[in-house]
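Posting here for the record, re: nicotinamide-adenine-dinucleotide.
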Amino acid sequence: MSQPHPVADAEIAGRKTVAVLGSTGSIGVNTLEVARQLTDRIRVSGLSAHRNLDLLVQQTREFNPDWIVATNESCAKKYRWPKLPGTQLLIGHDQLDQLVTDVQTQVVVAAIVGTAGLRSTLAALQAGKTVALANKETLVAAGPLVMDLAARSDATILPVDSEHNAVFQCMQSGRRSEVHRVCLTASGGPFRNFSREQMQLVTAEQALAHPTWDMGQKISIDSATMMNKALEIIEARWLFDLSPDQIEVVVHPQSIVHSLVEFVDGSVIAQMSPPDMKLPIQHALTWPDRVTGPARRMMFQDAMSLEFRPPDIGRFPAIALGLQVARQAGTAGAVLNAANEAAVAAFLDRKIGFCDIVRACQDVLQQHAFEPQPTIEQILEMDRWAREETGKWILA
Ligand code: NAD
Ligand code: MG
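Prediction output follows.
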């Protein structure tokens, strides 16, 4: 592969240079759709993908980035790479560091799924970059360390998760000290009206068919168990420095209101838009500006109703688990996150039933040797331990 092509300063003047980690996933593809529409504002300087190398090559031909990283070494070494003039190919997960710390890179879109996204997000923050954060697992596993690193390195985290992006927007209506509480909306997923008995029998195909959002496999299952909302409670706690008592969940099946912030005077500010991840992605990429972009728009000439109701914790115990872990802090987030990743993979492999996912997480959490102020090494060790324990739980 050839060396990165020199980019004329004039060409990048006024444009943000953006590296997209996990460019072949659902968030990655939506990010590139935003970049395609906003070429006057965004230059894609780097891409990364794990297994879908055909799509990575296609994206490289279109966006002509300086670097691409194929993170799965065995897939990358078997692949017959075509010539990609002007782009340098790097192979292996560690190479993401080079991409995110490159002086040209201004914004890193963290869109790798799971704990696999932790290391590159930390590297980007340490280098003082702006991180458009989709990878919520990073904050769930290591929230205090991530926020502390961002503050020390003068890095900026802009939330891409639609609820957190909404909260970020709503918070601009008042002072931080005037926030009373935050309500995260949840669609309730495909089983929001199912009984516990019906949920025992659901298949992976049913669980993957989300009624309002089109997403990657892991987050689709998380939405069906409502573990996604549990992870988002923990994400919100660290991102906005909230007390767990200030965070509530409200079920809103239409996914139009993406979250709400209540201020001390009782005013509730909501952010609304059709369910389309291109809007929060674009918001993070163009912030503090707002520009016309490709996201779908509200059509108020069509009649519509918006419903809000409290979540049913009896049917969706993941929500209580999320609040519990948000209160516990320490290593609890890393354990919940890793146990959930392992249990979701086992459910997709048809090794456990749907309701076992949250049960496995509860049991593994109970067994863990809690550490209140873990280092990053302790978090990674806890992540490894929780996956192993979940593996034993699945076989038991
Ligand atoms: P996805 O499964 O569609 O894509 C994941 C991406 O990560 C792919 O590009 C894949 O190549 C890469 N990847 C997978 N395993 C990897 C590994 N071990 N090392 C390096 N790269 C790896 O996932 P997604 O739905 O796009 O979600 C990405 C992240 O964004 C998740 O953390 C998810 O919770 C969050 N998120 C997604 C949505 C959504 O609408 N999809 C909404 C909010 C937040
Ligand atoms: Mg979300």
